[in-house]
Design goal:
heterodimer; A: Rossmann fold; Rossmann fold; 2 domains; six-stranded mixed sheet; 17 helices; B: alpha/beta; nine-stranded parallel sheet; 12 helices
Chain lengths: ~400, ~260
C-alpha cells in the first residue's frame, strides 16, 4: 500500500480512530492475524494467488461504464458506474472474502464464521468457504433474515449454516456481536471473516487492502478506456468497505473529490436513519473507536435504512478520520430518493443496483445536475439489486408480485 | 490501600483453603431497588467481593444470561448515573469491597470522560473496575494509570491462550488487586463442568503473576469451588447469580442467601 497519512499506526489507529479494544481472549488471535497479514501483503506467492482468485473466481476486473442515457437524462456531469454488481455473488464483498480466506489458509484455520447484514457478505463468505474448503457459519439478525430470505437460501445452498440472532435490534450490529462471541469461544481453529472495514485492528486495514483493487481499476479503466480522470468518486457507506475500496487509490490525489453516502432513512429522529456523521458521537464499541449513533450514556441506538447493508450504528475508523480531516465529504440519501434512483438506473441503463449502492447513485444524480458536462463522476455500484427483489416489490407496491408471493406455495 | 487490598491481606492472613467468592449483579436487574437488595444480601451471606455491572447495549464478552439482563435493565430505563447513586448507597451500607464492571464505551462517554469515571467511581466508594474491552497495552486512554491514581484496583484479564510474555505485561497492572482469569475460551455463562486443564492453567498464571488470581466464566456450583481449592484465591460466580434470581419466582433474596451459603460452605 502506498505510504500516505491515512495508514494506521502500529497500535492500529487512524488518527484518533480505530485501535484494538477487544477482550483479552481475542488479542492473541488478532496479533496472529496481524502478523500473517503484514507478511502476506508483500509476499509474491500470496499476491499471485490473490490476483488469480480475483480474475478467475471473482471475475475481475469488473466493468466501468459510461451511463450515456442517464447522463443525458440529467443533463449535467458525465456519470460512470463501476459495476461491482457483476463480481461473483453480486457485490464487492467477495473481494475481501477471497482475501481473508487465503489468509485463513495461511493461518491453518479450519472453520470460518461471519456476520451479515444484507446477506451479501454471508453469500460471499459461504461461496469462498465452499471454494477454499472451510466449514462455515454465518450470523444474521432475525429481522435481516426476514428482509433477505433469498440470500439466506443461497448461503445454505453453498453449504454454510445460517444462525439467526434474536437479541438486541436483531440486525447487523447484533450479528457482529454474536459472531464475536463465537470467535471468542472457538478462537483456536476459527477465523472470523469480518465483512467490512470495521472491528478491531487489523480488520479495517485487511479489508481496505483487499478492496483497494476497486479504486485501482476505476483509475486505470477511466484513463485507458476514456482518457479521463474522475472529478468525483461517490460510494455508499455502511461499515464502509466498498467506499474504502473505491476511494483508496485516490486518497493521495486531492483533485479527486470523494463523497460517502450514508443511509438517511426517513427522518432525523433516533431509529429513523443511520447517519453516523450527522447524529453520531465518538465511541468505542465492537473493538474500535469511531463515530457511533448512541445516547448520552453511550448506549448504542437503533438505526433504520431501507437497505440492510447501511443499517448500522457504527462506521469504519478510517472513514471517521477521513471525515475529520475533510478528505472525504459525507452526505446521506433518504429512502424515497434511493428507491427512485433504483428505478431510474434500471430504466435508463438496464442495470438494477443494490439498495445500498443506490444511495451513492441518488447523490450522484443530485450532484450531476449541478455540474457542467465537462465534469466526471464515478459511482461505485457496490452490488446488484437482485437480492432486493422482495423488498423492492413491496416498496414499489407491485400488487401482482405480492399476489404471486402469497400464492407461490399453493402452486406445486 | 483500598477495600480490595485490605480484603486480600485479610484472606492471606486467614490462610484459608477454599477460594474466596466474588459474586455479580447487573444493576437495574430485575429492578434497581431489587439489584441493590441483592448486592447487600450477597455481601451479608458471605461473598468477599461483589461486581456491580453497569448495563451496556453491546456487552461483547457476556453470554446470553448476562446479556439479557443488561438489555432488560436498559429497557427499564436504567441510566449510568442511577448506577453510581445506587453504588454509593451500597458502599455506605456494606463493608465488602465493590467493583464496577462495564464496557469501555460507558467510561469513555461518561461526563468528563474516563478520568471522571474513575474519580466518581472512587468517590462513590467503589474499590475496583473490570472493563473487558480495554487492552493491557492501552496507551491512548490512560485507563490503567487513571484507575490506579484514584486508588482503584483495575482488574486485568488473562485467558488460557494468553502467552507467558503477555502474562508478564499483565502482572504489574494487577498490583493493587488480582488477575481475572477467564476459565475457558468463550463468554460468560454457567456450565455444568469446569474445563479440563483449568488447574494447571491457573498454576501457570500464578508462576508468572505474584498478585492473587481469580477465576471466572462457567463457575456455578459448590463442587466447582471445591475443585478450585488450591488453584485460585478467588472464585467468580457471575451468570449463575442471575440464573438464581430468574428461577426464584419472586422470592429472590431467600434464593440468593441459600445459593451463596452453598458456595461458601
Amino acid at each position: 500500500m502506498k505510504k500516505t497519512n491515512y495508514n494506521p499506526n502500529a497500535a492500529g489507529y487512524y488518527g484518533p480512530y480505530g485501535g484494538q479494544y477487544a477482550p483479552e481472549l481475542l488479542i492473541p488471535a488478532l496479533e496472529e492475524l496481524t502478523a500473517c497479514f503484514l507478511k502476506a501483503k508483500s509476499d509474491k506467492k500470496f499476491l499471485k494467488d490473490l490476483s488469480l482468485a480475483y480474475r478467475d473466481f471473482v471475475g475481475r476486473p469488473t466493468p466501468l461504464m459510461l451511463c450515456e442515457n442517464l447522463t443525458k437524462h440529467i443533463g449535467g456531469a458525465k456519470i460512470f458506474i463501476k459495476n461491482e454488481g457483476l463480481a461473483h455473488t453480486g457485490a464487492h464483498k467477495i473481494n475481501h472474502c477471497v482475501g481473508q480466506a487465503l489468509l485463513a489458509k495461511r493461518l491453518g484455520k479450519k472453520r470460518i464464521i461471519a456476520e451479515t447484514g444484507a446477506g451479501q457478505h454471508g453469500v460471499a463468505t459461504a461461496a469462498v468457504c465452499a471454494r477454499f474448503g472451510f466449514e462455515c457459519v454465518v450470523y444474521m439478525g432475525a429481522i435481516d433474515i426476514e428482509r433477505q430470505r433469498p440470500n439466506v437460501f443461497w448461503i445454505e445452498q453453498l453449504g454454510a449454516t445460517v444462525k439467526a440472532v434474536n437479541f438486541g435490534g436483531k440486525r447487523l450490529k447484533d450479528a457482529v456481536n454474536a459472531a464475536i462471541k463465537d470467535w471468542v469461544t472457538n478462537v483456536r481453529d476459527t477465523h472470523y471473516l469480518l465483512g467490512s472495514c470495521v472491528g478491531p485492528y487489523p480488520f479495517p486495514e485487511i479489508n481496505r487492502f483487499f478492496q483497494k483493487v476497486v479504486g485501482e481499476e476505476i483509475k486505470s479503466q477511466l484513463k485507458n478506456n476514456y482518457g479521463l480522470k474522475p472529478d468525483y468518486v461517490i460510494a455508499c457507506v455502511g461499515g464502509g468497505s466498498n467506499a474504502m475500496g473505491a476511494f483508496n487509490a485516490f486518497l493521495a490525489d486531492k483533485s479527486v473529490k470523494l463523497i460517502g453516502v450514508e443511509g438517511g432513512g426517513f427522518g432525523n429522529k433516533t431509529g429513523e436513519h443511520a447517519m453516523r456523521f450527522k447524529g453520531g458521537k465518538v465511541g468505542v464499541v465492537e473493538g474500535y473507536k469511531s463515530y457511533w449513533l448512541q445516547d448520552s450514556d453511550g448506549q448504542i441506538s437503533d438505526t433504520h435504512s431501507v437497505s440492510a447493508g447501511l443499517d448500522y450504528a457504527g462506521v469504519g475508523p478510517l472513514h471517521a478520520y477521513l471525515k475529520d480531516t475533510g478528505r472525504v465529504e459525507y452526505d446521506s440519501a433518504r429512502d424515497k430518493d434511493v428507491l427512485a434512483a433504483v428505478k431510474l438506473l434500471a430504466k435508463t441503463e438496464g442495470i438494477v443496483p443494490a439498495l445500498e449502492s443506490a444511495h451513492a447513485l441518488a447523490k450522484a444524480i443530485q450532484l450531476a445536475a449541478q455540474l457542467p458536462k465537462t465534469k466526471t463522476i464515478v459511482v461505485n455500484i457496490s452490488g446488484r439489486g437482485d437480492k432486493d427483489l422482495f423488498i423492492l416489490a413491496k416498496q414499489f407496491g407491485d400488487k401482482e408480485f405480492i399476489k404471486f408471493t402469497a400464492n407461490f406455495s399453493k402452486h406445486e | 490501600m483500598n477495600k480490595i487490598q485490605n480484603t486480600l491481606v485479610q484472606l492471606k492472613a486467614e490462610a484459608r483453603k477454599s477460594p474466596a467468592l466474588m459474586t455479580h449483579v447487573v444493576m437495574g436487574y430485575p429492578s434497581l431497588k431489587e439489584s441493590m437488595a441483592i448486592v447487600a444480601e450477597q455481601a451479608r451471606a458471605g461473598a468477599q467481593f461483589v461486581e456491580l455491572q453497569i448495563p451496556f447495549s453491546d456487552p461483547m464478552a457476556d453470554g446470553p444470561t448476562i446479556m439479557k439482563a443488561n438489555q432488560a435493565a436498559l429497557d427499564k430505563g436504567i441510566k449510568v448515573l442511577d448506577c453510581f447513586k445506587a453504588a454509593e448507597k451500597l458502599a455506605g451500607k456494606v463493608s465488602t469491597p465493590l467493583l464496577f464492571m462495564t464496557y469501555f464505551n460507558i467510561a469513555y462517554r461518561y461526563k468528563g470522560g474516563v478520568k471522571a469515571f474513575c474519580r466518581d467511581s472512587a468517590n462513590a466508594g467503589m474499590s475496583g473496575l473490570i472493563i473487558p474491552d480495554i487492552s493491557i497495552e492501552d496507551e491512548v486512554e490512560n485507563y490503567w494509570s487513571l484507575a490506579l491514581n484514584y486508588n482503584l484496583s483495575p482488574i486485568p484479564i488473562a485467558s488460557p491462550i494468553t502467552p507467558k510474555a503477555r502474562l508478564k505485561k499483565i502482572a504489574p497492572l494487577a498490583k493493587k488487586g488480582f488477575v481475572y482469569c477467564v476459565s475457558s475460551t468463550g463468554t460468560t455463562g454457567a456450565k455444568n463442568t469446569l474445563p479440563t486443564g483449568l488447574g494447571s492453567y491457573l498454576d501457570k498464571v500464578r508462576q508468572t503473576v505474584k498478585s492473587p488470581v481469580a477465576v471466572g466464566f462457567g463457575i456455578s456450583q459448590p463442587v466447582h469451588i471445591k475443585a478450585l481449592t488450591g488453584h485460585t484465591d478467588i472464585a467468580i460466580v457471575g451468570s449463575a447469580c442471575i440464573d438464581i434470581i430468574n428461577k426464584s419466582k419472586g422470592n429472590y433474596l431467600k434464593a440468593v442467601t441459600s445459593f451463596i451459603a452453598s458456595l461458601c460452605k
